[in-house]
Amino acid sequence: MKLLPLDTPELIELVAAWLARKENYQWLDFGNGRQILTPALLKIMAQRDTHFLRAYTGDSDAIPIGLVGLNGVDRAFRTATFWGASGEKSFRNRGYSTIASSKLMTLAFNDLGLHSVNTWAVAHNPSIRTIERLGFRLVGRQRQCHTIDGRPYDRLLFDLLASEHRELDEERWQRMERSPGEAACEEHQALPG
Question: From the first residue on, what is the mean pLDDT of each consecutive set of 10 residues in the chain (193 residues)?
Fold first, then answer.
């Protein structure tokens, strides 16, 4: 897996198309009710120091399949807000977003020198599993502040300190994520004879 900067028009267009899908934008909020990012706005964000955006690839390391990012990067207070979105849905539930997010947290704490990263998720968003796997701690709840299809939902608030982050081992994580049947099949194929 690789984390790729949004540095080509083609990649920016691809990511903007992912973020324009209701299945993605309904969970997002970029301020003042903005949920969809145009390619032009995404390009501006990718060029600013207050944002750190990376597309991530699957096993082939060639085709981008999702996006992870930090908004509100504050070098003085050493904080940022984490977010992400799956682009290619056929790669969902395979651990790719978890590994990409873990790699991004390592960059945030080691390369950017951040001390604390926060995030939020709508209460019934499946991405909460990823947030918890990364070691984020629940720190609060904003009640009925996010609207999807005209209905209000709570946001769960999380944070992670640099001292709490442990980068996930990609190979070990992928072994853990396989079903018992897949693991047994691979073990059987590895046996001699």
Answer: 94 93 80 76 92 90 91 97 88 84 97 97 92 96 94 96 91 53 45 46
Q: Is residue 41 part of a domain?
A: yes
What's the DSSP call for residue 107? Answer: I
Q: What is the pLDDT of residue 21?
A: 86
Which ranges in the chain belong to alpha helices (H)? 9-19, 22-25, 39-47, 96-106, 128-133, 170-177, 180-190
Note whether residue 29 is domain-resident: yes
d(CA 76, CA 164): 20
Distance CA 116, CA 135 (A): 12
Number of domains, the chain = 1
pTM score: 0.84
Q: Indicate the residue type of 31.
A: G
- Characterise 135 by phi-psi region: left (phi > 0), alpha (psi -120 to 50), beta (else): left
Domain assignment of residue 82, yes or no:
yes
CA-CA distance, 170 to 103, in Å (whole number)?
9
